[in-house]
Amino acid sequence: MTxxxxxxxxxxxxxxxxxxxxxxxxxxxxxxxxxxxxLLSSNECPGCDLSNAGLVFADLTGADLTGAxxxxxxxxxxxxxGADLxxxxxxxxxxxGADLTGADLSDADLxxxDLRGAFLTDANFDGAELAxxxxxxxxxxxxxxxxxxxxxxxxxxLADRGNYTGAIGYYSQALNIDPxxxxxxxxxxxxxxxxxxxxxxxxxxxxxxxIFSVSGDQQGYELATVFVATVEAAAEAAEESxxxxxxxxxxxxxxxxVGSIGGxxxxxxx
Length: 270
Hints:
By secondary structure, the protein is mostly helical. 51% of the residues lie in helices and 0% in strands.
């Protein structure tokens, strides 16, 4: 079957509009269908009206969507690697799990967009508007796109649910932004300790104590030193038990500190 041309689609749309009541929603929908057909057939549709379009799992690798309107479009799990979305309007768009590797999103409006779990490595966000965008779990996210407070909050939430490995990932990203943030080192130290990584737990705790001491935060310093002492004592107990239960005691003693450390983190953030 021959692929419909844009001219043919436009003719059908014009007949439909003439036969139907002349209302703006009908005209807008017809125009969107034509634009959608052009995008899917040629992978190019600069300036198109694709508002509210359903493009879940769509393969739009390298697509030209410069200046396109994708307001509230559903692009979940779609491939937009290398796509040109510069100047596009993506307000409220769903891009959860989408592959935006190397995509050009410069000057795009992503206000309120859902980018959870999206792949953002080498994506260009220069001049992009990201107010209210959800970037949780995004991969390859540039440090300038999130704040250290957001990363710390996300890490704490995962730690509260027992996902210490995920929490460590967020804490590490936060330290890429500010390598002198004592609360983050302490939080990551607790997470490392909770999965039994004694060496890293101790190193992070000692670094936190050093930062708190320099900044004059006595409460933080005392909490960090107590944490380090607890880790070291638990490690010694584990060695003495020769694996006969020391590991369990180690994890339990560290977890007892989470409540106190959580209070410090909340105090520092709020």
